[in-house]
Every structure is written in structure tokens, then in C-alpha cells.
Structure prediction request, 766 residues.
Amino acid sequence: MAPAKCSFVTTHRSAPKRSLRVFAVGVSLALVVAACGRDDEEGADDAPGASADTSDDGAADTSGDDTSAGAAEGSIDVWAMGTEGEKLGVLADGFMAEFPDIKVNVTAVPWDAAHDRIVNSIAGGEVPDVSMIGTTWMGEFATLGGLEPTPEGIDSSQFFEGSWETTEVGGVSYGVPWYVETRLIYYRTDLAEQGGFNQAPANWDEFTQLVQAQVDAGAEFGVSLQPGGVGAWQTFMPFFWQAGGEMLDESGAFTLDSEACVEALTFYDSFFEEGLTPPAVSDVPVEGSFTNGDVGSFISGPWMIGVVTDAGADPATWTVAHQPTEEAGTSFIGGSNLAVFEQADNKAAGWAFIEYLSRPEVQVEWYETVSDLPAVRSAWDDPALADDALLAAFGEQLEDAKSAPAIPTWEEIAAVIDDQIEGVTVGNTTPEDGCTTMQQEAESIGTGL
Amino acid sequence: MTAAVTAENLSESIKEEVEAPPRRSRPTRKQNLVGWSFALPFVGLFVVFMAGPILVSLITSFTDLRSTDIRSPFGVNFVGFDNYGDVFSDPKFRKAAVNTAIFVFVGVPLTMSLGLLAAVGLNQGIVKFRSVFRLGFYLPAITSIVAIAVVWRLLLGADTGLINGLLDVVGIDGPGWLNDTQFALPSLIVMAAWKNLGFSMIVFLAGLQSIPVDLYEAAAVDGAKRWQPFRYITLPLLRPTILFVAVITSIGYLQFFEEPFVMTQGGPLDSTLSVSYHAYNQFSFGNYGYTAAVSYVLFVAIAVFTFIQFRLLRPKT
Prediction:
């Protein structure tokens, strides 16, 4: 990183004589600001994303010897969050059995603290070798210069495309997908049939018909969509993609005020306009109202299979369905990646560990340990996943799923999108104004690359 | 400060000390040195852990520091007052400022009058179980906000909440107290008043007990009725206590953060977004320069507001 180009000059008043007041004046610093500033207008030299753009060989350098696991030895520190952090030791044991020269120390980090802890470790240079990284954090940490580009030895085609894209910041990949999740439609088949709708919804019209059928069959609400608030974009953006929208164009400029956005917001809002979805987040959890038939459908990720089952829903009364298809049938893809830090002591062993975790059989083992869905496609051929109809539906949707763009300012842009969704569904904003505002605010925030 | 201690000026200073005239003389250089050396542990800690960071945060508010700059924090640009300009032109900040102002101007008088009411009641009316009531009123003030949030969610829930359940009995369809843009902020004000009245009650109670009983007896002899003792004895003599409670409560309420953080996340439609919460959000987005500017705007607002309170409530001489 560039050295400090800034000098702070302290001026002391000569020997403070009387009071603390004088001392306080003495302490005040005079800043010489002229020498401060970014290295150039954009600070681009500092940004590893940018430097990696211009020197792909730089990235390739690391790949040569680093990935040959035979050469790797020593110990590595690995951070992981939540359940993954608690259970990763199981896989680490298998890895150490195969690579006796490498010792893996797993540290479990609470999700709440993880982001700041990683930022601080990068700033302080005291990083672990490998860490689990939430997909929406990739842009920030890579731009910060904290992550090592992925060695070329790793084959990107073994992962789901949408998932691999979460590792790419400014055209360079920093890490590999570890596990994934995507969003499907959960719906009550019994209510739908009662209301006269007997198949999975193929497009938007049919989705509305499904929802209407649930209401006709006696559900208070045909669907439960998030009216706004943190994370509403994860439910909304699939509709945006289905209408043919893209968040960024090829040049990396935002394209949020497209026709697709207006169509998607209008469609999303139609459920609120017609009273088909609760106007505000209910204090009854959705699995409860889904099980007792008050809510006919909702859109969520694979973890809800277990939650709905635990809530006592009869497996014969509900199923999951692929997102409806207009221009596309795209859903949202989330999950976590694994990355090696740029300042790590033992990068070679770190990549060896990541390669081990990316093996199809290890991915299946991991699914059996913590129910995380494999990011490696061939792992889905394993009977543990392929024979489960509900899971297989998720596997199918993963082939057509997109992530948020990996840009450092994403969390802020996501908040803007959440706000506008709420403005349209709860407030009086029109979809047109909502999309225009999204675009304007996103442009003023910038991609941060 | 490099005073060489010699026998001569040592004896001189002793002589000075002994023969010092009654009025305070200027301390000598050596006395200064000794004084500072005693103060040094505090001054050192203060400079390193308090003054330093505060100064850095002030400087930060004039830079475009972002989270992506932290590996080269000196490589940022000074942008003058741009951050402050952005703060005032940001509609979210303006919304947050209005919410915070409503919270303070409604919440502080509400909390203080409830606290005073409880204190007067405990001081005069309630004799039995006084300590039980005192503890009961004070308990919310020392309870974790998270526990309070759980309880108040049970009360305020739109579909399963106790309040709406009661309203339902008498045939009223209650609103979503936390989901409705009109009711969310008032709900939080009531909750904050309930949580914080215990503190003002304790302080008012101490203030009330310092008022001599003779004054009330004298007033009774003079024929004071009903509200008159309260209006002409209690309130004027409580003036310093009122000032103290008003200042402390206002400073707390201007930094209004925990209640929306645990209850509403600033929603719906930013109707419970406060200035502190806005700063918190911007900090988590990594806009450190902007966050520092918001914080200093809030700091100045607190300072000005406190100053006004001191002017309005200063003791009449």
C-alpha cells in the first residue's frame, strides 16, 4: 500500500504556564494539508481491483506454485461464521488426515461481529489465512486490497455461474464459492387446487392466478411478500431480472431505471394494491400462518424447508416451485465464499484447504453436516441431494440465479432499493418514481470500484 | 519544560512558600513541573484515548475517508465542508432530524412530568410499600433494552399484541403500532418515557426531600390551598433539579438510537429513523467522513440545546 503522503505538524506553544486551558491550546495540531490527498484522482493505483485489471499476470503469478498442494505445509488459521464456524472442524480433520503436513486452526466468529473483525484484521495486517466471506462483502474486501486473486488452477466452470460471479470484483476473481442458497416459491398445493389452480406457476400471470386461487380457497393472504425494510431487495430483484432487467451494464454503469424495473415494481406492488399480501410484516412468523393456511405462499430460501416442516405442515399439502419465467426465470443466489487473504502467511496451504473444500464429495459431506447446499454442480448428482424432490428444485433454480453485483458500495445501494420498494408498497411513490430515485441515488453513491 | 532544579531555586521556592502573602502568587516553574507530573497519568490517558480520537474524528469529517481507504488512511482527500453540505442536503438526514426533534420535544417533557408525578406521589401520598414502588418505577431504567423490546413487542404487535387484543374486546381494530408511519414514533416515545421516567423520578425524589417541611407548614398557616404549595414552593425550589434532569434527559434523547434499533430498524418509511441511527447506518456503509460530519452536527445541536436550557432554567438571582 502507498505510504502516507501526509505530514502532520504539531505546534506547541512554548512551555504552558498556567492552566489546562493553555495546555489544550498547545495540544491543538496545525495540519499541513497541502501534502495530503489520494495518489491520483481516483486512488486507482491503490485499489487492487484496478491493478489486477491491468496485470492479469500478477494474479497468475500466485497460481503457479501456490496451488500445488504437495508443496504446502505449516499451519493455517481459518475463520468461519455461525454454524459453519462451529462445524468446520469436521472437514478440517478430514483435510489434515490427507495433508499431514498442514495444521488447520478453525476460529468460529459470530456473524454480528464478522464484518468489522475482518475489516480490522485487514487494516491491522493481522489476518487469518482463509476466511468464509459473505457474498455481498466480496466487493468491499477485494477493493480494500485484503483478498488474494484466485489461482488459475481452480476451474470456475465447476461452480454455479451465478455463484462464481459473486467472487468477481472488477473482472478478477478473489476466492471460490463454498455453499449457496437461492429463493423459490413455497406454496400450499391443497389450497391452490381448491381454488382451481393445479400446476406450478409458469409466468407472472400464473403466479397472480396462483395467489388469487389461494385467497379463493380461504387463505387470508395469497402470498406473503416483504413490504420493505432490510433485505427486501432479495425478494424483489428476481422479478427485476425476470422482466429482463440488469443492475449494471457492460461499462459498469447502473441501469436501475429501466422499463424492467418499472414492470417489476408494478407487479410487486400489485399484490399490495389488491390486498393479496400482508400490508406490513406480521408478528406471526410466516411458517406459522403458512401451516395453518392463513398465508398461501411465500418466497424464501432452502432453510425454510426445515422450518416449515418443524412448524408441523403436512408434507402432502405444500411444495416449492421455480420462479415464474417472463424474459427469464431468474432467482437470487446467496451463500458464502472462501477466500485467502493478501497478507496471509501461508497462502499455499490456504488454497490447498479451499481446493479440498471444493471437492464434490467434501461438498456433499458438508451438506450432510450442516445442510449447506453445495456450490459445486457435480455434487448435486449425489443421491443425498438428487433424490430429494424439494432440494432438486433448488438445484435446478441455481442454474438460473443471479447475485448482487460485487461492488464495495453494495450494502448502501441495497438500502436504497429497500427504501424505494417500501415507498412503493407502503407509501405513495409510483413505480416510475421509485425506479428513477433508485437510479439517481445509486449513481450518486457510485460503484466504489 | 526543562527546569533544572538547583538548591538555590529550591530554597527560594520554599522561602516563597513560607513568606507567601495571603493572595495567591503565580506558581513557580518548578511547582508547575511537579503539578504536571502529578497530572501526567490522567493527561496522558486523556490525550491518547480521548482527545486524540476526538480530534481525529473531527479531521475525518473534513475528508472523504471510506471503509475501502483504511489500509492507507492518510491517502484521502480533504474536501472542506463538502460532507457538512451533503448532510444538510440529504433528505434522509432531514427526516431523521425532524424525527429526533419530535422525539426530544415530546419525549423529554413527557418523561419529566411522569417522573415528577411519580416522585411527588412517592414523597407525599404513598407511605406503604414506598420502596417497592420506587424499585418498580426505576426497574425499567436499569433493564436491558433488548429485554424491554421483547416485552413491548408483545404489547404493540399488530396481530397478536396485548394492546390490540384489548382494543379488540371493545370492538376497535387497533393499528399496527410499529408498522404504521403515524403510530411508530409515538409508540417509541411512550416506550422511552416508560423506560426513563425512573431516572427522573429518583432525582426529583431527592430534590423534593431537600425542601424543608417548614415551608409547607408556613404556607398552610398562610392559607395556601390545593395547587398553591406545589406551584409556589415545590416548583421554584426544584428549579436546579429540573435543570439537571432536563439536560441529562435531553442529551440522552437527542442521541435517540436504541429504541428504533431494536424495535423498528428505523422504519416504516424512515418514520423512526433518528440522527444517531442515520449516522450508524452510514458508518456501516463505510462512509466514515460523512458519518463524522453527521456526528459533529449532532454534537453541536446537543451543545446549543444544553446551553439554551441553562439560560432558561438558570437560578433566578
